[in-house]
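Following the same procedure, sequence and fold were stored together, as reproduced here.

>
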Amino acid sequence: MMVKIRLALPLALGLLALAPGCSVPKENIVFTDGPDIRAAMANTTSPAQKRLEKADELRIEQVIYSYLLERHFWDLADYSAVFLQADDAQVLAMMKKYPDHVPPIKPSTRARIRSHRTPVDRDTRKPAMVLSAEVNEPNADDSVDAIGRWYAGDAVTGFRAFHLVKAGDDWQIADVK
């Protein structure tokens, strides 16, 4: 009986090795974190994502700032200035567009901003409001989503979500939430 087991054991192991799923594949195993795979994945061609031109981004920011400046988030408080979180050229353009705005639009160099505190106008030492605009890349239909924010301290903060479409060379707000 011992002889039968000795003969049966190698035969069983041989058949087991030949069974499907138990053999070792001839090709190398590919690890997705290997340097060759990372380099290949970086070079793959995927559909090019649409990019928003800088001029369009500036136009969209102007539309958002105009919307925010025409609303009166500051009517319930005594704010002495509105600061735009934008480059100097954009701020100057909005100051020219709204020369008599109350409170006045001022360059950000005149703002004193401290963490978790109301921004202060350096000229008057009174509370101020900060407006910002964040523009996303174009959607598949060439529309653009953006966010307009206002901030006058942790208790006075908010935002609006915008959906904009291009009409000729100009951008128009299609929806505000």
Summary: The chain has two domains: 2-42, 54-176. Residues 2-42 form one domain. The first helix runs from residue 2 to 18.
